[in-house]
Design a protein that fits this description.
Strand content: 5-15%
Helix content: 25-40%
Structural class: alpha/beta
CATH class: Alpha Beta
CATH architecture: 3-Layer(aba) Sandwich
C-alpha cells in the first residue's frame, strides 16, 4: 500500500508538517510506502498561467479549461502537473494536510486543485464520480483548526465543520475518490497562543497519537456519501428517489432552520 501526503503549510516546523512526518512514520511502520508533496517547499505555483502551456490551442486568448484539455490531448501538460498526477495515481491513499485559514484551505492548496485536477487529464464530463480517474482510491482531509470541537459543532460559533469541509470533499469525490471522514485537529492555532504551555503540549501530543493510530486503520474508517452520475437527470438536478446526503444538494429550496 502507498500513501501520498500533500502538505500546504509554509513553515517546515509547523504542527501540520509534524503531523505529516508522524503519520508517514506510522504508516511505514505498518509496511506502507509514503511520498510527500510539500507545496511551499517545492515552490509550487498555485496560479494557472498561460506561459505554462507551450503548445497553445488558442494563442490569442487564454481559456484555462480549453488549454488544459488541449495539453492533456497533446501530452504537453506542465511537468509539475504530470508529476503530481503520477504520485496520485500511485497512491492508494491521498491525505491533504492543511490549516484552516478564514474557513477555507490556504490559497496554495486551492491552486493545487485548480492546476493538478486538469480538465481532460483528471476529469471530463464523462470521467467523474464513479467513472473518475481515481476510482478505487481513498482520500482524506487532515485539517488543523484554531478553536475547540464544540465551536465547530452544528451549533458552534465557527460553523458546522462538516459543511465547511464539504466543498473540498466534494471535489475529491468528483474525480473518483472514496472520501474518508476527515481528521480534524481542534484547538491548535489558538491554543498555541493563549493556553497554558503544559495544556498545549498535552493536547498536541494526544492529537499526534490519535493521527498515528488512525492512519493505518483507514480500511475501517467511515466513507462520506455523495451522489453518483446515475442519480442526476438530464437537467443536472437530482432524480426522484435518489438519496440526499447533504444540505448542499437537497430536495427543498428553503431549509427549516428551527
Amino acid at each position: 500500500m502507498h500513501a501520498h501526503f500533500v502538505l500546504a503549510h509554509p513553515e517546515p516546523q509547523s504542527f501540520n508538517a509534524h503531523l505529516v512526518r508522524s503519520g508517514a512514520a506510522a504508516l511505514e511502520a505498518e509496511g506502507w510506502t509514503v511520498s510527500v508533496s510539500d507545496l511551499y517547499a517545492m515552490r509550487f505555483d498555485p496560479c494557472e498561467r498561460a506561459e505554462y502551456y507551450s503548445k497553445r490551442a488558442a494563442p490569442d486568448r487564454f481559456d484555462v479549461q480549453s488549454e488544459q484539455r488541449h495539453a492533456s490531448e497533446t501530452g504537453s501538460l506542465p511537468q509539475a502537473i504530470v508529476d503530481e498526477l503520477a504520485l496520485m495515481d500511485r497512491a492508494d491513499l491521498l491525505v491533504l494536510q492543511y490549516p484552516m485559514w478564514w474557513h477555507l484551505p490556504p490559497a496554495m492548496l486551492k491552486g493545487w486543485f485548480d492546476r493538478v485536477l486538469a480538465y481532460g487529464e483528471a476529469y471530463t464530463g464523462k470521467k467523474r464520480w464513479e467513472n473518475g480517474r481515481f476510482v478505487g482510491k481513498r482520500a482524506m482531509l487532515s485539517v488543523t483548526v484554531g478553536t475547540s470541537r464544540e465551536t465547530y459543532a452544528f451549533d458552534g460559533r465557527s460553523g458546522d465543520i462538516d459543511l465547511i469541509l464539504w466543498p473540498v470533499n466534494f471535489s475529491l469525490a468528483y474525480v473518483g475518490y472514496d472520501v474518508l471522514a476527515p481528521f480534524v485537529a481542534y484547538g491548535v492555532e489558538a491554543g498555541l497562543r493563549y493556553s497554558d504551555p503544559a495544556i498545549i503540549e498535552a493536547r498536541l501530543r494526544a492529537i499526534v497519537e490519535d493521527f498515528r493510530a488512525e492512519l493505518p486503520r483507514m480500511s475501517g474508517r467511515a466513507t462520506l456519501p455523495f451522489n453518483r452520475m446515475a442519480e442526476w437527470g438530464a437537467d443536472g438536478r437530482i432524480v426522484p428517489g435518489a438519496p440526499v446526503h447533504s444540505a448542499f444538494i437537497r430536495r427543498k429550496q428553503n431549509l427549516e432552520l428551527e
